[in-house]
Amino acid sequence: MPPIHLSASEIVWVSQLDSFSISGKSEPPKSITTQAAQAIGLLCNARRVGTRWQVKNIPATPTSELSRPGFVWRRLGKALLAYLFLDLKASGPPPDLELMGPGKETLVHLGSLSARDIAVRVLGTAAFWMSMRIAIGFEANIWSSFYVLTGLSTPKDASPAFGSVAKASTLRGFWGSIWNQWLRIGFTGHANFIVDSALRIRRGTLLSRYARIFFTFAMSAVFHHIADVTAGIASSNAGSAKFFLLQPLGIILEDGTRALLASRVHSARVRRIIGYVWVAVCHGPHPPPASPPPPPARPPNAFLRTNGHTDAVWTHTQPYTSYPTFPQLTEPVSTDVCVVGAGVSVAYELVRRGHDVVLLEAREVVSGESGRTSGHLTSVVDGGYVGVARARGEGAARVVAESRAWAVRQAGDVAGALGVECEYRAVAAYEVSQYARGEGRHREEIERLRGEAAEAGACGVEVRVVEGLAMRGWDGEGGRRDAAVVEGQAAFHPTKYLCGVLRWLEEQQNFRGYARTRVTDVQERGVEVVGVGNKSVEVSTLAGPKVECAYAVEATAVPLQKLSIVAEMECKRSYCIAIRVPRGKMEDCLVYDQARPYKYVRLTPCDAMDDYAVVGGCDHKVGQEDTTTRFDELEQWFRERFPAAGHVDYRWSGQIWETVDSIGFIGKNPHAKRTFIVTGDNGDGLTNGVIAGRLITDEIEGTPNPWAKVDDPSRCASIVKALPEMSTHDVQVNNQYKRFLQSDIQDIEDLGQGEGGALNPTTSKPLAIYKDETGKVYRFSALCPHKKGVVCWNTTEKSWDCPVHGSRFSKEGICVTGPATTGLGPEDESAKTLQRKAMEA
């Protein structure tokens, strides 16, 4: 109870004073026990009735409440009514976050608010103050009833918490006569001490008078601000501090104008009306506390919707409930092409060209990494064009530039053709130096940037190096650096785009989509020699039904195979935050720094007042590093460069697969004739997906494509050149098998609720132990079904991650990311039940 804490110093103080010091009257000496009881009674006696600190304008206690029984019954009755009101309010629908967001809770931006915004603002302010009055009244009535019932206070001392609304025609009257004194009395006592004892300002002076008011409200501002932040409200969004600091200024202005108003307006009634409006205006800026938008409601089987426990910023405007839904495959079907893994861009191109397509998704559509990306569309490659030219040759580098530039434009063309509103826009990309001029490695880095810009320019990329690049809003440390500016890039809302394309596919006669249909194997059947024969592909599913097709495309992030291609990639976790920035204050562009691992930034709309800066990076290998510190690192990095940044509303992570030569694998699966793969996105899965749609469709139709050889999964030259790196990677992968001898926890009791860990008992195989929020324990096999690596617990995403090849499993042990195709085996009945219920939900 806040008044207890606020009055704690007064309890100690008052209990050590004599009776005269307390009441100001000559009374017989009292024992220390009596004095302590009197001090405790002050917790209820908020207005200090009967003491020398008694406040002014005390509301009279109703006659019906002067007796102890009458007081207790009436106050408890009022408390019950208040509780019923608050319960009804809490059970009502949540507010519209677009209308109640930061910025709209203040009248400062009145000119930019719509009529609806203003109406919500007025009604919201009234509802806020009414709710606060009822909540405080509930608390006051409960505690005063307790103190009067126990004899620690008298009905007369426990005066009503609030005065008459009729006195609300001035700010001074509102705070001095109407609004409760439970909190402010503590502040007033401390303000008096500061003015009288610390500053020694002479009582009775104008300075003393206003200094007391200022310090009282200043302490109230600090208290309420701390309360807001403790309640989870962003410091930058909490409006209480500003509100309380404005009140003494309002009182000073009010005192200065009352005499003038009295001389100009002779009607007391009109003056009161003007006063009510004035008080309402002064209270208008106070927000119903602005809190970050709550995450969309998570279904019990959330792993079917997304790859982790966290939600990406895209759910802010595209919640999971708005995604298209597809039925489960329950019977065998046949088709021209079966696309496994919801490769939306591949399916789109095939359907557009007239092929009959069946699309299979293990969970719900858009539940994979595409829904957790940062939404960049870029021709910038991680290894750089210098690296591509060195590994593959100048011709390959030009093909990479050409194909990726086409993909960036094609995504926008598709969105336009289908009428998909996905925030697509062309922007420039800035590759910014991480070192300022004068720092030791600045020259080396700039020379590398110049070399990269020259190579990219030779490949057809429009790029230039700018010294001292100034980006709008980047006013902090590192905000003005040398950079390479790459034109012709784009940004968009990835899930709006994918959902829009899927809705178009749903309407096509030559398309069928199935969700919750996990594929376990893709096998080519029959014989075909030099195009002669009868060869087909059989796609097997976990539930049993099969798909017979002429061609299959594994757009599964990782192919459904044991090693081969999988061994040529590194799997990494990448992190993102969405942090509020004032709308229009930050330049709309893509930003990449040159650190390793690097960080990247882009904008996406938030609400009428703010945008979101999506800040990503801090990559690390799956299951091999701590996942909990990355978000703070991203936030600190961005705030140092963009001081106007506000609250971080979203934090999430995703997974990327990097090839040894920074170019994806798109084309026929090695040693296959009719099975294609799309993998090795190098963090550019959206761009690669669009390229894959064209390459694979051309291959199926027999149309030569000059880009095909560059992304060919069977390429050898660049892989051979990267053998030293691959050897190092293999050593690191094999080193993860030492987890057979290690244990994340020594005992199940080491786990907190909602946590997991690998336990390696000496008498059995390693176990993955999960303790849910109620403390119930579930045991799974800790061995990844793919290559028997020992999984580890991902604290951020509440998942089991395999550090060997990157397979991931939900906390229930269900596979969410390959190359594994099945989940972790349950080791007790509770785990079996948990897994079954999750799948049936």
UniProtKB/TrEMBL annotation:
Membrane topology, from the record: Multi-pass membrane protein
Keywords recorded for this protein, A-Z: 2Fe-2S, Iron, Iron-sulfur, Membrane, Metal-binding, Transmembrane, Transmembrane helix
Gene Ontology annotations for the cellular component aspect, listed alphabetically: cytoplasm; membrane
Alphabetized Gene3D superfamilies for the sequence: D-Amino Acid Oxidase, subunit A, domain 2 (3.30.9.10), FAD/NAD(P)-binding domain (3.50.50.60), Rieske [2Fe-2S] iron-sulphur domain (2.102.10.10)
Localization (cell): Membrane
Keyword field contains Cell division: no
Molecular functions (GO terms): 2 iron, 2 sulfur cluster binding; metal ion binding
UniProt name for this protein: FAD dependent oxidoreductase
Presence of the UniProt keyword Iron in the record: yes
Rieske domain sequence ranges: 765-824
Residue segments, region Disordered: 820-841
